């Protein structure tokens, strides 16, 4: 059972004997990037930690899984990250002893910053019952295609609203995208350079003993509320010109029907599909 923790960018996955709290995209140390542009603000990690502790107290999880981008710098490690990341995890361990991280594209050299008890999972994701969890910047492992639901972060989805006078506001959202299981299997096999043997489903079964089952992809909002996001209902982005609504290999494949994605605010309000919301962006 999947339950968003309203009104927060967090999700609870319930099983028979466990209760997982899932979040994505902390981007600890993002203040350093602002400082390099001449904007100086104190560390906001204590506020991020306080928010997460509140959610942990509400949900009482048996395990916490973070879907990537714990840190903000991509390859190197800034002094701020050396200070804030160990402190955050050491504090969290007191209330959630089982913490796991699926690395994201910003998590280069993350391991030295984490307490020994924190478990780093494969970049390609992990299967928990009928749910597959991964960050989203890379293809998930083929085994995840046997899950009915895939869950990822990476995108920082928001929705943009523009009034007749040109004033625009944005809000964080959840995106639930319908998927074609056969086309997803076809895309993953192609990425792995595996030639189809009869059909994508048969080939996936032969090579990985997995029957395609994915019918939906859920994208988590960015847990760091101070960062911006990617308006899913816009088709242009300043001087960069046109871009596709979502990025990441699985979202660029023909297996994920982005235009039909259902968009919800953090409080659960259903706004419509991406195709319906484009006129508001």
Q: Characterize the largest beta sheet: strand count, sense, and whether it forms a barrel.
A: 9 strands, mixed
Order of helices and strands: EEEHHEHEEEEEEEHHEEHEEH
Intertermini distance: 33 Å
Number of domains: 1
SS content category:
alpha/beta
Radius of gyration, Cα only, in angstroms?
Answer: 19 Å
What sort of overall outline do the alpha carbons produce when their principal axes are compared? globular
Q: Which percent bin holds the helix content?
A: 10-25%
On the 0 to 100 scale, the average pLDDT is: 91
Individual helix count: 7
Pick out the low-confidence regions. 236-243
Residue share in β-strands: 15-25%
Beta strands, count: 15
Notes on the structure:
- With 281 residues, this protein is of the alpha/beta class.
- The protein has one domain (2-280).
- It has seven helices and 15 strands.
- Strands 7, 8, 9, 10, 11, 12, 13, 14 and 15 form a nine-stranded mixed beta sheet that branches.
- The longest helix is centred in the N-terminal third of the chain and has 15 residues, at 45-59.
- It is globular, with a radius of gyration of 19 Å.
- The model is unreliable at 236-243 (pLDDT under 50).
